[in-house]
Amino acid sequence: MGLMPAAMPVWRPFEQPPVTSSDSQAANKGPGGGNTVRNVDSPWVERLLMLHRRVLRAAAKGDRAGTGSKNAKGDDVKLFDLAANDAALVVFRKLKLSVIVDSEECGRLEIGPGTPRHRLVLDPVDGSDNWAQGLALSALSCAVLPVDAPLHPDWVEAALVGPLELDTPLIALKGSGAWRGNDRLETTKLRNITEAMISVELNHHSPSPGLARLMAAARGVRCYGCASRAISLVAEGATDAHVDARGRLTAESYLAAARLVIEAGGWVVGLDGAPLTAPESLTDRVSLVAASSRELCDEIVEVLGHGQH
Asked: What is the mean predicted confidence (pLDDT) over 76-88?
């Protein structure tokens, strides 16, 4: 892939249909349109930046020890989760957006006076346990999709993964790349597992023989406890792949980060190498592989044992 400009593109009227998986595979040999910069008119950049600022402040002020109720998945909702979620809803209402919000913390809400055109899949604090312990790896995750679209990275039009300890989030627009501020994100394009630094999610999971083989084969292995951050590190080129084989991952934690990886030139697939399935709701669970290149992705799938993980 050629060198890309080192500044975020100017958003101008969009005159072509958005990139689809088939378009990008033909042009880039990667799913989802990661390598083509297009000029688009997207108000979502400023909206997502505002969202990150407000949620970051709310989470920082929230009580890290207190616990509220449980969410739809049965997980404890901490007081800072609720504060961050409330701050996000305030932003959407202040912007007078007519949207559907699907949040890990409050479920499905319709906001605004008009007919919703978009669905926002939101995790106000992904990596809540990290944040509660004072660990750095946690983030706001928000994916913007057409209101009736499947919960799949190919349909994500705009995405944000905003670390709660950093002022500058990661943002992707479909077909226009992924960015941190003015810096264009690119994966490492590494092709083989023996040279790869990978992350593996192990929470509530005992590694299978296939996963153990993969961990032994890699140059280095990390476990971060925050899906959106772990996946987005692949988009940033900080790691080469992320594997979550637990069958526990839900859409609000990975949709935005998966779009970042795709826009940065990487691949996101199921454990068998097939395209990700689209869950019906935020309580449906999946496993995935996010990798810096098609070749590395294929090797990881082979080492895992084609479904026998």
From this structure: 87
